Backbone:
């Protein structure tokens, strides 16, 4: 396919959004236009360093400031959809309690096979005590959400009289659901046999362990849960919970609980970990993924430990450890071992490791991940370290199991040919020097597997001081683009949502507002070849990013959008994302909170679907109303196409490449699809386009 013709194939059909971005990674998406991102060198000065040490992780039981006089804003009216065929957008609930997690959000939205969607969020209205804090829940039944801020606002948590925080949610049973949260004393969960209806059954509690490694005070109250279910009926429950040592904030004990009947629980340390690793991953630096009989635990974000995935293919009976990042300083004694010292305040010697991330299984059992970067160094003995933050601390990196342990690419400086060898220190590095002096840096778009970053036509126009980086944001956004959430379609296509500063949108103090950006990828996920192909021929680098907020979008132009979350799996290329948005950078709740009073924080749910060449895909429409009927769908060996009149038949793959052309005749036309790889395709005859799947 002609590379320049890709512009014509990748048409984005999103009515309200501004013309912003162009797609070339692999998957066409729904929006209205394009913008190119030039890969120009910039001066290596858009980074600031700050000292970081261990902090008490927030549980939600901490005292908050005194009551403030506060006038709530009116709800913004949502039409429920931006485009009836390709995008659904809803304001599902409003909360004044604005701290969702201590790290990265996960396990908060699930899409069921019938297309319905359930979701939860940290919810509370009664500032400052937030005695009503608990699990806010909403459910999309295929037509709309049960609650919306305009017509039917959410007024109560799932748990009734039980005060909770940090909820997670997933399917439980053939058609049911489960929500879990912490109380500050234990983990509590509620179930329903039928999703979206009936009474929640609970409270049910997971017993705290008494005979496992734990803090010196001998007290374990599991908090900050994550949840997943496996098995043919989603009836085997897997839960992670943690306890931070109040006397040694650097130690957080992580526990794994499992139940096969929803009543009786077995709790252990996380399987396969070495003893020193038990305490290395702090609150919300972990998550769970599940699909079928597969379940996996993600552990990352620690400067003193490795990036790990613990995987089981038999519902948690046995486990294997996968090291996706080998931290050169992992396991060292940072207080006493001088070998742990590296970097300095006046040099550009960072370790580029993963900070926030997520994982998900595809339907073939392969794990996929998306990770943000963290630039850190350890200039002196002690359990504190330095991190660099700024506009060039950026990048969302894609990974899957076939890639093994990430080593970092070999980099050849474009101006003088200086070679920087492959090294795990640079595993998640996006900006690289143009020569040996390092005065100028440029993005590596040829071999870094980066799938998301700050989108701006001319990066030099961005101003570091416009990047909000208060202490309440530090632990979430060491990287400008961060908090990725990843969803995999049955076809293998992937959507990754993340939070990143928007150059065109500033708040009243001149700070860049954050927005949610979605990147799309299609198998075989070889970004390195794709970048090299386009960079070499076109000179400019184009990238596939869809913004959910934009300066010309009246609904979202003043959103400060953070904490994206999504289902791990989907079908029909229907990608759902949830996120929290208010109009002010910073937080009211949490460590070093910067907001003087609560704001209206809306939990949004947005669904985006790909579009090929601007054509709406007609699905499930009776044959009497169309010129074409196709069957069977999915197709295995052949596809039958019934036409009302003679018409040319064209079949396109998900990249918009024409794979079959033939002249169709009135009646039934049989097409051999044996030579097509498994996945989603689009068939066009006359003015009608439909989607079908080849298995």
Residues:
């Amino acid at each position: 396919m002609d590379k320049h013709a890709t512009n014509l194939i990748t048409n984005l059909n999103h009515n309200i959004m501004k013309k912003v971005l162009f797609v070339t990674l692999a998957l066409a998406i729904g929006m209205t236009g394009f913008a190119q991102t030039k890969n120009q060198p910039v001066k290596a000065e858009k980074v600031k360093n700050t000292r970081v040490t261990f902090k008490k992780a927030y549980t939600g039981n901490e005292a908050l400031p005194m009551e403030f006089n506060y006038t709530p804003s009116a709800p913004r009216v949502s039409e429920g959809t931006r485009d009836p065929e390709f995008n659904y957008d809803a304001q599902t609930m409003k909360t004044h309690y604005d701290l969702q997690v201590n790290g990265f959000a996960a396990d908060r939205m699930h899409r069921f096979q019938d297309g319905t969607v359930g979701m939860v969020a940290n919810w509370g209205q009664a500032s400052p005590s937030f005695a009503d804090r608990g699990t806010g829940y909403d459910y999309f039944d295929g037509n709309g959400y049960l609650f919306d801020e305009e017509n039917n606002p959410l007024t109560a948590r799932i748990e009734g009289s039980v005060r909770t925080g940090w909820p997670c949610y997933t399917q439980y049973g053939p058609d049911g659901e489960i929500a879990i949260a912490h109380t500050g004393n234990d983990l509590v969960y509620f179930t329903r046999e039928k999703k979206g209806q009936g009474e929640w059954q609970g409270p049910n509690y997971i017993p705290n362990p008494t005979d496992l490694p734990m803090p010196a005070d001998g007290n374990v109250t599991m908090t900050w849960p994550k949840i997943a279910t496996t098995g043919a009926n989603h009836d085997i429950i897997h839960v992670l919970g943690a306890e931070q040592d109040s006397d040694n904030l650097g130690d957080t004990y992580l526990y794994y609980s499992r139940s096969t009947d929803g009543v009786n629980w077995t709790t252990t340390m996380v399987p396969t970990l070495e003893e020193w690793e038990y305490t290395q991953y702090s609150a919300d630096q972990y998550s769970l993924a599940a699909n079928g009989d597969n379940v996996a635990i993600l552990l990352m974000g620690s400067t003193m430990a490795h990036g790990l995935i613990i995987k089981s293919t038999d519902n948690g009976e046995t486990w294997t450890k996968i090291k996706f990042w080998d931290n050169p300083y992992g396991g060292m004694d940072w207080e006493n071992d001088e070998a742990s010292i590296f970097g300095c305040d006046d040099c550009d010697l960072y370790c580029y490791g993963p900070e926030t991330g997520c994982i998900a299984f595809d339907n073939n059992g392969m794990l996929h991940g998306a990770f943000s970067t963290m630039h850190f160094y350890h200039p002196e003995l002690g359990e504190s370290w330095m991190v660099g933050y700024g506009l060039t601390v950026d990048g969302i990196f894609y990974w899957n199991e076939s890639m093994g342990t990430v080593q970092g690419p070999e980099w050849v400086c474009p101006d003088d040919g200086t070679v920087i060898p492959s090294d795990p220190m640079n595993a998640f590095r996006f900006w690289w020097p143009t020569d040996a002096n390092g005065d100028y840096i440029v993005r590596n778009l040829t071999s870094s597997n980066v799938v998301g970053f700050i989108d701006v036509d001319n990066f030099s126009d961005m101003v570091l001081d416009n990047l909000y980086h208060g202490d309440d944001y530090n632990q979430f956004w060491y990287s400008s683009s961060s908090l990725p959430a990843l969803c995999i379609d049955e076809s293998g296509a992937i959507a990754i949502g993340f939070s990143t500063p928007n150059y065109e949108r500033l708040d009243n103090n001149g700070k860049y507002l954050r927005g949610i950006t979605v990147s799309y990828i299609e198998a075989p996920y070889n970004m390195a070849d794709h970048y090299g192909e386009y960079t070499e021929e076109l000179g400019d680098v184009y990238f596939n990013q869809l913004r959910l907020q934009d300066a010309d979008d009246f609904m979202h132009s003043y959103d400060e959008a953070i904490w994206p979350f999504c289902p791990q799996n989907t079908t029909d290329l229907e990608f759902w994302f949830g996120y929290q948005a208010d109009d002010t950078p910073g937080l009211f709740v949490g460590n070093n909170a910067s907001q003087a009073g609560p704001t209206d924080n809306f939990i949004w749910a947005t669904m985006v679907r790909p579009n090929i060449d601007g054509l709406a895909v007609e699905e499930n429409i009776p044959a009497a109303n169309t010129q074409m009927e196709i069957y069977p769908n999915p197709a295995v060996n052949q596809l039958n196409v019934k036409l009302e009149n003679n018409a040319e038949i064209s079949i396109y793959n998900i990249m918009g490449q024409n794979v079959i052309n033939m002249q169709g005749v009135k009646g039934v036309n049989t097409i051999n699809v044996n030579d097509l790889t498994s996945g989603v395709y689009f068939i066009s005859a006359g003015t009608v386009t439909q989607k079908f799947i080849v298995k």
